Amino acid sequence: MSADCWTLTLACNRADAEAMPEIGDVFPDLADPPSLNVEEPDPDQPDAWVMTAYFNEKPDAGMVARITALFPSAHHVVLAPLADADWTTMSQRNLEPVRAGRFLVHTAAHARARRPGDIALAIEAGLAFGTGQHATTLGCLSALDRLAKMRRFTHIADLGTGTGVLALAAARRWKEARVIASDIDPVSIAVTRANLRDNKVAAGRAAGQIELVVAAGMEHRRLSQCAPYDLIVANILAPPLVAISRPVSAALAPGGVLVLAGLLRSQATRVRAAYRKHGLVPLEPQRGKGEWPCVVLVRK
Ligand code: SAH
Prior knowledge:
Elements: E1 6-12, H1 14-18, H2 23-26, E2 35-39, E3 49-55, H3 61-69, E4 75-81, H4 82-85, H5 87-91, E5 98-100, E6 103-106, E7 119-122, H6 135-148, E8 155-159, H7 165-173, E9 178-183, H8 186-198, E10 210-214, H9 221-225, E11 229-235, H10 238-243, H11 245-250, E12 252-261, H12 268-276, E13 280-282, E14 295-299
Parallel strand pairs: 6-7, 8-9, 8-11, 9-10, 11-12
Antiparallel strand pairs: 1-3, 1-4, 2-3, 5-6, 12-14, 13-14
Helix pairs in contact: 6-7
The chain binds S-adenosyl-L-homocysteine.
S-adenosyl-L-homocysteine binds at residues 76, 128-130, 136-137, 140, 159-162, 165-166, 182-185, 188, 216-217, 235-236, 240.
């Protein structure tokens, strides 16, 4: 695969996966059509399939829309450069535990990797994004670990929670905090609820618990009711992060910290500029080697 390869990954139901047409039949106009592959990552979830389209160059929005339209049940649609995007493939492997500061993210099969002093988070591989294997998740976990050495947070929001991994990390690190975790995708919230159970963290509104909501960006009554936050974490993608910069900034208390990831290195300046307009400045130099930096900002 060349360095320019891109993947479009989406989750869909079995019916859509099985009805996938021959790409040449539906798009005879394409000179270099993507190759499409469907698979069932978890035999215990026979209706949860994953489709991956492989492109030899970055597809435009029209192309993404055409492919997505072939799968009416599509959700979790993710477009990314191949090297960094292969999270669904990774999630089918027996994931190795990963460490970021004191945090250890592991599957049940690797519970023995725990060492004294670890804040261990048990996250099974599945359809939601956030097994700790992706650079963006690791970058956010490292940022939380650094912040824990400087600050105590009591009101925390995790936007785009995926598996709930960052919300769980925050709740375990700041035990007295109220945490609210949201995702645009109801499947993620269902996965997060199961992960809360596995990690013995209660779902709810009290201190030490995590409240779960399905929401796009800040668009939920509970997200505004629980503001202001002293910490917001959002590992989404650059365009939505820019789009929600105003309400997210407004939901931060003065001195509150914002951890952003999901943007590519080439998008960091634009994302930072969007938040600077609303009074947020860098708290530390940009971290994260490679293509997926983590940006930590503070509200003046
Ligand atoms: N927080 C996890 C998951 C990140 S993946 C981690 O760090 O590993 C990004 C998640 O954001 C996905 O679950 C996706 O469904 C969700 N998402 C995408 N756009 C969103 C939006 N506008 N508002 C809320 N969630 C969104």
